[in-house]
Request: fold
Amino acid sequence: MSGKHRQSGSFMVLNVFILLMAIGALGVLGVGQAIWKKNELQRIVDLTAQVAASDIADASINFPVAYSYAAKNGYDTASGDTLSISCNVKGADTLLSANNCGQSVLVKITRTLATSFLGTHTITAQAEATIVPMVTGAVGTNLLALSTSGSALLSPVLSLIGTKLQLNAIGYQGLLAANTSVSLVGLAVQLGVIQAGQPLNLNSLLSTQVTARQLLDAAFTVSNVTASDLGLTLPSGGALNNKSFPLSDILAATNVGTVSNGTIRLGDLGFVSTLAAAKGVSAGTIKLKLGSIADVTVLSPPKMFIAVKRPTSGSVLATATTEQIQIHVKLSGLLDVTLTSGGGKADINDIQCRLPQSNSSISSTLYSVPLTASVVANPLVNLSTQLGSVSASNVQLVGYPNPTLKTTYSFDAIKGTSTLTSNLTAQVLGLNLGILNAPLTAALSGVGPILSELLADLGLDVNQVVLEENTQNCFNTAVLTR
Reply:
């Protein structure tokens, strides 16, 4: 074979080699393009699943926010993309109806892709997202509403409690009105419940023994606020420093478990912790307009709540109770009149997550505050009457707390109070004390007005329940690429 032919054969081999390399490179390019497109599609699906889970209460109207979000992030119906968002059983392909949606969604996008040298083929991306929403807040009577109103004056009961705990009035009011958020995890770290970076188990937090001073100092550190910022002077002794209680006395959480976020309002923490410190001791006395002296005692503090909605949750996510206050009056040196107000409660039943968050809501069942009144003088005069609790179901609190969201539900308070007074008056009229007991009869005639004044002057509206929301987290989602 001549040299010329040998040279020609070499060039042919080289050309074939170059051609094969080019085809291989284009094939790699096509595969790389397909992988890149699949990753892009998966990103869209993951984000859409997270948004759909955060808007899960809108499943019945087919997740409009999630579809809009997908379109803004690359989902393109004009190019033939198809998108499905369905409620599903967590971890399974079993689909649920929109009216029976739980806490998981399954998102799927299908796209037709034309790639270099690989032709046209279909790619699919799927993701599942499960949401575990959480809300925090507080429950109380209208004492809670008064304490958070920012009023320059404390209610008489709170003023007594502040004095008993050696808190200056202006500073105490500043604490109660403080809207600063306190991280639950940060609070647990400061109290030594967990180390920084560890998850928070609510059981461990609720069983922790603290004093009100320890709790407030920890809250100030976490929220980067000082007592002096609020005009508050904290005493070095007294019940605020010496009386300890478990956090379960002031914090309710039915569905206990691990949480990684959530905040509570500093003012509410001040409200419940100071009433816990004052529990069981006489807060002091108030002179009423009618001239009598009322002695006030805190029987139990109100509670804040942490409500977490898990797939295994029952119909009640958390239950929190109002404060309980007892007031004692001696009438004309003859009658002991005792009024006990408190023990109402709120069940947090559901958290409905929607986007925007201002459309989200919580559902609750509220129970009115029972009221008991008794009158005792001698064996002839030993009277008592009670207004039992009534309930209101499906009370909605709609919106996003910024910094707090509050509703006050009234169980026809005027009728309730007058009924209590009328019951006692009827019992008084039924007594036959005779003419020799004229002073006692005169004292009994003042029972009704005294009860009404106690409720009015002390700011205890017995049939009102205040529900306050501090935190709403509808973005606590876990996304699983499938």
Notes: The first helix runs from residue 3 to 54. The chain has 13 helices and 26 strands. The mean pLDDT is 83. The first strand starts at residue 82 and ends at 88.
